Amino acid sequence: MPEGHLLHRYAREHGAKLRGEPLRVSSPQGRFAAEARSLDGRTLERAEAWGKHLFHHWDDGSIVHVHLGKSGVFLHSAPPARVLPQARLRLEGSRLVATLIAPARCERLDAAGREDIVAGLGPDPLRTDADPDRVIDAIARSRAPIGAILLDQTVISGVGNVLRAEALSLCRIAPSRAGRDLSRERAEALWATLVELMRQAAEDGRILTVVPEGEDRASIAEGETRLVYRQARCRRCGAAVETRPIGGRTAYSCPRCQPE
């Protein structure tokens, strides 16, 4: 499932290459056709991400909200680009064609609709307006496993299974450990680790936890730099990685580096 860093990457690229000019807007698939027709020829004013949500703000005051779900993706091409019949939304400018495929949600909202969505979300580590104390205080009050807390989008936005596994590994925290059993210092270190990990992932377009010295980041095979996520053995100490369901997803951890 796409995680928050990818939405921030999309927002950055759309803001840089689609903003400020009339766009050709269409829905080749047809499921967003009426909304696309009403936006065709309008100007995108800005794009923003909050957790796993993307918001396009238009010059008529409307907002297009996208949630990718499990398999959604934006494909980016230089214009002109082939029209894909399965596209829910196609945005074409002079510098970029952005094609949205298989989202969980693609809808037109007003400002109040956006506020309703944001009101149910926790702070996003990649946003400058994020309040880490909200997250740290929520962790301190919770009896739930920290692995479940990190996947709760009402507590912290944008963290998915890969980020959960790798951040907890980097901080040497077992995913089964109760949130309230973490010291404030360790909870603050976990937040800082997520900020750093997600910021770099937004630059790379994928999560690379450890990069071997001298390696080109773009050429590293997927998964080779993960410490524990979908690894047979911990890439730090070599111990067998343990898996268990936590928060509705498979949690990966090293029993040696992340003792309970």
Write the SSE topology.
Blueprint: H1 4-17, E1 24-26, H2 33-39, E2 44-50, E3 53-58, E4 63-67, E5 73-77, E6 87-92, E7 97-101, E8 105-109, H3 111-119, H4 132-141, H5 146-151, H6 161-171, H7 184-204, E9 242-246, E10 249-253
Helix pairs in contact: 1-7, 4-7, 6-7
Q: Would you kindly provide a written description of the structure presented here, covering whatever features stand out?
A:
Helices cover 30% and strands 20% of the residues. It has 7 helices and 10 strands. The strands form 3 sheets. A 4-stranded antiparallel sheet has the order 1-6-7-5. It has a 4-stranded antiparallel sheet with strand order 2-3-4-8. Helix 1 crosses helix 7, helix 4 packs across helix 7 and helix 6 crosses helix 7. It is globular, with a radius of gyration of 20 Å.
**Gyration radius over CA:** 20 Å
Q: Output the helix-strand order.
A: HEHEEEEEEEHHHHHEE
Total of DSSP H or I helical runs spanning 4+ residues: 7
Strand count, sense and barrel status of the largest sheet are: 4 strands, antiparallel
- Within the largest sheet, what's the order of strands? 1-6-7-5
- Report the count of strand segments: 10
Sheet/helix structural class: alpha+beta
Strand content: 15-25%
End-to-end distance: 27 Å
Helix content: 25-40%
**Overall pLDDT, averaged?**
95
Dominant shape: globular
**CATH architectural name of the largest domain:** Orthogonal Bundle
CATH topology assignment of the largest domain: Helicase, Ruva Protein, domain 3
Number of domains: 2
